[in-house]
Amino acid sequence: xxxxxxxxxxxxxxxxxxxxxxxxxxxxxxxxxxxxxxxxxxxxxxxxxxxxxxxxxxxxxxxxxxxxxxxxxxxxxxxxxxxxxxxxxxxxxxxxxxxxxxxxxxxxxxxxxxxxxxxxxxxxxxxxxxxxxxxxxxxxxxxxxxxxxxxxxxxxxxxxxxxxxxxxxxxxxxxxxxxxxxxxxxxxxxxxxxxxxxxxxxxxxxxxxxxxxxxxxxxxxxxxxxxxxxxxxxxxxxxxxxxxxxxxxxxxxxxxxxxxxxxxxxxxxxxxxxxxxxxxxxxxxxxxxx
Length: 290
What we know:
Elements: E1 9-18, E2 21-32, H1 33-49, H2 52-55, H3 62-68, E3 72-74, E4 77-79, H4 81-92, H5 98-114, H6 120-126, H7 130-145, H8 158-161, H9 164-170, H10 175-200, H11 220-236, H12 242-257, H13 265-289
Antiparallel strand pairs: 1-2, 3-4
């Protein structure tokens, strides 16, 4: 692009064939090629600032965004409104409502859990490990689409990446949501043991603790009830150690210090899954290295 002597602009038309005509669903006029490059670079910088390359959760691109949106592919065609709205926002440079984004992404995370997604790219991209990778990738697009470039920096140091408390701080989360994030980290410890136990018994690696997460949203009371049950699960699966006990105590402290930070039930669920995704990725990355 830098070598071109002229400015190239594209008019992007999204739609489908309709008999002898074309059914245009959305037209985005005069999109400069440099804008396309800028969007992809910004997404990669945010992903790098979150350490996604080290965590090996996958790459960011328009295909990933498509897989994270509640797109319905039916016999009558593709209902891709949520994806097209996100693309339009990216290409034209305006921000989207954060609550709406989190709501839509939770719809996809829920269908990943229960294998009901109607988006073929969701099924292809995430297959059987959607909840383990998708929340981290979704966090990149939430920041990108809401204009939050605070993570657009160099890769976090190993000391930050390996410490859940420091990592949560690096995400600049409200204290209450940092507490929820740490509960998600502890959820990964239980899920790992449930997976191992199920596989050793000839099963498919079921993680029963994920059934306790309400994908429709978890209120402040729901989060605290989940925290109590989580402690019992840590005991039952032999996961209580000085590290997990410290994380649990820190999580409860953060929840108590910032109850207003838990005002959005869907945000609570997303950050619980984000903590789970982060820690599971750490487990998988460590296992691959060994």
